[in-house]
Amino acid sequence: MSVRILVIAGSLRSGSHNRRLANEAARLLTLTTAEVTLLDLADYALPIYDGDHEEAAGVPAAAVQLAERIEMQDGLLLVSPEYNASVSPLLKNAIDWTSRVRKIKGRPVQPFKELVVGLAAASPGRLGGLRGLQALRPICQSLGAEVLSAQVTLGDAATAFAEDGALTDDHARLALDRLVETLLEHAQALGRHVP
Hints:
By secondary structure, the chain is an alpha/beta fold. It has six helices and nine strands, in the order E-H-E-H-H-E-E-E-H-E-E-E-H-E-H. It is globular.
């Protein structure tokens, strides 16, 4: 069985630099033997996490579906914008709800436990979303994920992509290539579903 990798962008904006970076990462991953899925969080509409809502109505079906998708993976690549030096609220909310899923079809689950996670960000600023990834890393680790030390921070993202979506900067391309390669290696070595 090939390793399964899920790519999620933490933005819904159609012109998002992070969606473009997620698309390019997914394209690179499809050139390998991995089974790759590019997931759009727009397909998993979730209310803002609220404990009262959870107590009254339970975990939303979209959160259960998202948790099931994540739980089936060997690796996960999160590509997230930086919001006020922290995590994208869209992605944080999706993680919060997903972490509340305890059972899928009667089977106990911890969607992020022992999941290999790679992180990337793109930003028009020079830091390339670095502070957002610094906030995202401990969130994933607290849920039991194995977060790679290698990451991609793409600065000056407004001019970083060619018309076909490829990265124009050699350093950025190399960094993304290394992240994809490292994610695959670790997913194969530590992956939850690799025989």
